[in-house]
Design goal:
By secondary structure, this protein is mostly helical. The protein has two domains: about 190 residues, Hypothetical protein af1432 (Orthogonal Bundle), CATH 1.10.3210; about 180 residues, Hypothetical protein af1432 (Orthogonal Bundle). It is about 65% helix and about 0% strand. The longest helix is centred in the last third of the chain and has 42 residues. The termini are far apart. The C terminus is likely disordered.
């Protein structure tokens, strides 16, 4: 796969999350900019740490997408919003490349005076993000010229004296607050993110993280994507693809439904056959996928991701391609997508068994919809392929179960405690 830089990944994350709500990404970018400058002023962090923390700052409110607390996040005076902080912490811990930085997100709304009394990891970074977060919110409310005065009034209570001093120093030297209102401030963040190139493993985890973000819309879609990816990779190996080509098929399958993050949840989770109008909207997920990729992903992988609904006879979408227009990798993901849908369980359907799935695949082959070689390979190795799918699916479900249990425990420890404190 073509090397992706921090800028490429950042842009993909931005476009994906903007499809849920664009306010928090813009806010996250400004917070990342402020955090980066405070860290540079502080001077003890290496380039890798600054790169990682800038990404964490970008994603610091990601839990609000899940918990529907976005409106609350954008007010200056805010009680401890543990629900979105807990979910954001768990998302980073289990579904992102930033596991070790997850506590920063968990405590980024905890007042300085409380956080200083707690024995928790990375609390100084949480204090840094907390200050940057509230500075940006206050400035967005139209009172930017007074922002430092307001923050100073909370010195030692809400905000860390250390980070306040570093923010003032950065402002005096570089005028960072004024630059937030322009369009070029992100160039400095990109520079920090690109000083330490992302490894292949990091890129892969980043892309998986973006796929897991679809869970904000539909957990079924995440499971479907992981299943489609597993089937695609196994078929590519069975067809004798080399490691590089197999990986491109796997990456294309991983990204194939990314655009569903922009489809209304009532359509994604509709319990039955969609109306023609709803189906028209559903089909736009391919175009949204292309828009989110934005030319950042290698062309071959992009085509694999975007052509999974094409059919050999030209009746598919979005381009009505025919057999001769499609590569074997694209045909593999097309059948993997269908097998995943047939064998997946939904609120309105049970998982189809092997007999029914095989019958439908053969019918589609006879109707010249699916590649006959792919169909026969899938049927010949159905049991072994689906055994591996089961292992992969169980692993993902296990992660979700762990997250749910940990969410409940952290809610008891922090959210309910905070609620009691606020009521007294």
């Amino acid at each position: 796969m073509t090397e992706l830089s921090g800028r490429h990944i950042h842009n993909i994350v931005r476009r994906a999350l903007n499809r849920v709500d664009d306010r928090l990404v813009d806010h996250g970018e400004r917070v990342a900019y402020l955090v980066m400058h405070m860290l540079l002023e502080e001077g003890s962090c290496d380039a890798r740490t600054i790169r990682n923390v800038s990404f964490v700052a970008l994603l610091h409110d990601i839990g609000a997408y899940k918990t529907e607390e976005i409106d609350n996040m954008l007010r200056f005076e805010i009680e401890q919003s543990w629900n979105h902080s807990i979910y954001g912490y768990l998302f980073l811990k289990y579904l992102s490349p930033f596991r070790s930085y997850a506590p920063v997100v968990l405590f980024h709304h905890t007042p300085y005076v409380e956080l200083e009394a707690m024995n928790v990891p990375l609390k100084e970074l949480a204090e840094c993000v907390s200050l940057a977060d509230r500075v940006d919110v206050f400035m967005e409310q139209g009172a930017g010229e007074h922002v430092l005065e307001v923050m100073e009034a909370y010195r030692g209570t809400k905000f860390s004296p250390k980070w306040l001093d570093l923010l003032k120093q950065a402002e005096q030297k570089k005028g960072i607050l004024e630059k937030l209102s322009g369009s070029l401030f992100m160039d400095k963040v990109y520079e920090a993110q690109e000083k330490v190139p992302l490894s292949k493993e990091e890129i892969d985890v980043f892309l998986k993280m973006i796929i897991f973000a679809i869970d904000f819309r539909s957990r079924y879609t995440v499971i479907h994507t992981i299943t489609t990816t597993s089937i695609s990779r196994q078929l590519a190996v069975l067809f004798g693809f080399d490691e590089e080509k197999t990986d491109k098929v796997r990456q294309g399958a991983l990204l194939h439904d990314l655009g569903k993050i922009g489809i209304p949840v009532e359509i994604l989770e509709f319990p039955g056959k969609l109306s023609p109008q709803a189906m028209k909207i559903m089909r736009t997920h391919v175009d949204i996928t292309e828009e989110i990729m934005g030319g950042e992903i290698e062309e071959e992988i992009t085509r694999i991701a975007l052509r999974h609904h094409e059919k050999l006879d030209g009746s598919g979408y979005p381009r009505g391609l025919r057999d001769e227009d499609m590569t074997m990798g694209e045909k593999i993901v097309a059948i993997a997508d269908i097998v995943s849908a047939l064998t997946g369980e939904r609120s309105y359907k049970v998982a189809f068994d092997k007999k029914k799935t095989v019958r439908i695949l053969r019918e589609m082959k006879e109707e010249n919809l699916l590649c006959p070689y792919c169909v026969e390979m899938m049927i010949s190795h159905f049991d072994e392929i689906m055994r591996q799918v089961g292992k992969t699916g169980n692993h993902i479900l296990n992660i979700y179960n762990i997250m749910q249990l940990e969410y409940e425990e952290l809610a008891r420890q922090y959210a309910y405690k905070g609620r009691d404190t606020n009521e007294t």
